[in-house]
Automatic annotation (TrEMBL):
Name of protein: Aldehyde reductase
UniProt keyword Oxidoreductase, yes or no: yes
Family of this protein: Belongs to the NAD(P)-dependent epimerase/dehydratase family. Dihydroflavonol-4-reductase subfamily.
UniProt KW keywords: Oxidoreductase
Sequence ranges assigned to domain NAD-dependent epimerase/dehydratase in this UniProt record: 4-233
Keyword Oxidoreductase found: yes
UniProt cross-references to InterPro entries, sorted A to Z: Epimerase_deHydtase, NAD(P)-bd_dom_sf, NAD(P)_dehydrat-like
UniProt organism field: Isoptericola chiayiensis
Length: 340
């Protein structure tokens, strides 16, 4: 069994990764940025083999000590906002610098096995501007592209920096996981910004439905890929898009409306021109406007073929997320955080 450092352990994906690691018998060293977030993770795994360390993506302090005695680095931490920042560097700097900081510290500590969490957003807006075709893991999002959001740029740059680092240091053995929109059940009411779209739908805070689509994957499958990748030699040097199937926002609303007839889920589909007009004054619409007319589908077949599993369907992932959101809203939890 291995000792695994999981960065950003209070994040939505990371909590599931921690649970998957513990279920497999591994020891977890979890990084958090505050006592409050440590308490959230501790409450989920009382008495488990979890050790906590405080780290920040923007500081060198503590990284060397955190990686001492570790076998695998699982780097999931990265800022994940609900709306575009005024300065894209507010996302790009911590994403890129934090990834390189983690990799340098791992190499210095003799930790050569790394699993990095990226996103399908680093794939589906390529430089050829062919918005209609399905993308594959060979594609890369154009950093300064007309449709690229600051978050997508930050994740693309961070992943590219990681691949350059391991090319310069061939003893490092990297696997990258590129999830789509991550739905599925939250382990507690602190589900962060990953389920923001579902929350907006089921609470009626999305008054109109933009005609955009996204790849969808269940968080349990994302965690499974991370943990299986770290012991699979065939996964080294590969990136694995995680996508159970594309869904549009109106399709999501239809599924949720059928499951929750009491919910205030709008039936109004917004025309593209209106989303573009609103994007000038409503930050959340800025992201939606950059997805209009884009086929965001990414081929996710490599991961189940490599690791031997079947995806939980996009529909079931959406419904599991909705159950968490409804329960979290009732408990007064949820809301955006700075990790995915």
């Amino acid at each position: 069994m291995s000792t695994v450092l999981v960065t950003g352990a209070s994040g939505f994906i990371a909590k599931h990764v921690v649970r998957e690691l513990l279920d497999a018998g591994h020891t977890v060293r979890a990084t958090v940025r505050s006592d409050r977030r440590r308490a959230q993770v501790e409450a989920l795994f009382p008495g488990a083999a979890v050790e906590f360390v405080s780290l920040d993506l923007t500081s060198d302090d503590g990284w060397d000590e955190a990686l001492t005695g570790v076998d695998v680095l699982m780097h999931t931490a990265s800022p994940f906002p609900t709306a575009p920042p005024k300065d894209p560097q507010d996302l790009i700097r911590p994403a890129v610098d934090g990834t390189l900081r983690a990799l340098r510290a791992a190499r210095a500590a003799g930790v050569h096995r790394v699993v990095l969490t990226s996103t399908c957003g680093a794939i589906y807006k390529p430089a050829d501007h062919d918005w209609s075709r399905r993308k594959t893991r060979a594609d890369w999002t154009e950093i300064d592209g007309p449709r690229t959001t600051p978050y997508e740029a930050s994740k693309t740059l961070a992943e590219q920096a990681a691949w350059r680092f391991v090319a310069e240091h061939p003893e490092m053995r990297l696997t990258v996981v590129n999830p789509g929109m991550v739905f599925g059940p939250a382990l507690d009411e602190h589900y962060g910004s990953s389920l923001e779209t579902v929350e907006q739908l089921v609470t009626g805070r999305m008054p109109m439905l933009p005609q955009m689509n996204m790849p969808v994957v269940d968080v349990r499958d994302v965690a499974r890929i991370h943990v299986r990748a770290m012991t699979d030699d065939g996964a080294v040097g590969q990136r694995f898009p995680a996508n159970a199937g594309r869904m549009s926002i109106p399709e999501m609303a239809d599924v949720l409306r059928a499951a929750y007839p009491d919910a205030r889920i709008t039936t109004r589909v917004a025309p593209d021109w209106l989303i573009r007009v609103l994007s000038a004054v409503v930050p959340a619409m800025r992201t939606a406007s950059r997805g209009l007319g884009l086929n965001a589908d990414v081929d996710g077949s490599d991961a189940p073929r490599q690791f031997g599993f079947d995806y939980i369907s996009s529909r079931d992932a959406l419904l599991a997320a909705a159950e968490s959101v409804r329960g979290g809203a009732a408990a007064g939890g949820g809301g955006p955080t700075a990790s995915r």
